[in-house]
Amino acid sequence: MLDSSLMQLMWLASPALPVGGFSYSECLEAAVDTARAATESEASVWLVDQLHLSLARSDLPAVAQAIGAWRANDEARIAALNTWVLQTRESSELRAQAEQMGRSLLDWLRNHTTATPDQIALLAQQKPTYPIAYALAASSTGAPLRECVLAYAFGWAENMVQAAMKSVPLGQSAGQRILSALTAQIPVAVDHALSLSDADRQAFSPMLAILSAQHEVQYSRLFRS
Fold it and tell me: Structure pTM?
C-alpha cells in the first residue's frame, strides 16, 4: 500500500475527523445506566460483543460492498446500500447519528480532492449515511479493501472507548486495555464481514434497539445516542 493511501486511512480513522463521532455512544451510555456495562470488564465485553454481533454483520459488510460499488461507479448499488443502512437503524437517535455523521463527512469530502464532483453529487442526492459516505472517502484512497474496512472498525473502536471512559467512567489506562481487547478482535470481525453476501448481511441487535429507545428518554445523559 502506498504511503499516501495509508495516511489517508489513518486520517479517516482519526477521532479528530470532524464528523461528530465523539458525541455518540451507540447505547453504551444506556447500558452503563442500567448496570449492564458499569465496570471496565463489563464495558470491554459489551463492546467486543457489539463488534462481532452488530458491526461485523451490518456496517462493516455494507462499507466493504459500498467501496466496491463506488469504485465500479455502480449508482444503483450505492443507493440500495444507503437505503439498507437507513432502514436498519431501529431507533430515531441511531438513524439521526448515521445521517448527521454522513452529512458531516460529505461536507469534509467537498473540501478535499479525494472524491470526484460527480461522486459527491451522487452522495448528496441521497440522505447520505456515514458507512456509505466513509466508503466513498476510503474508495478514493486507493488502499486495498481489507485495509479500508480495518480503518473503519478501528475508528469506531476509538470513539467507543472514549465513550466508555466518559460514561462508566474510566481512566486512560483502562481505556487502553479495552482498546487493546477490541483491536485484537477487529481483524477477525473484518474477515467475517468481507465473507458476507447481501443475503447474509443483517442488523439484528434487539438489546441495542431497546437501550437506544430507553436512551432517548433517559433523564441525564452525556451523549446523543
Answer: 0.96
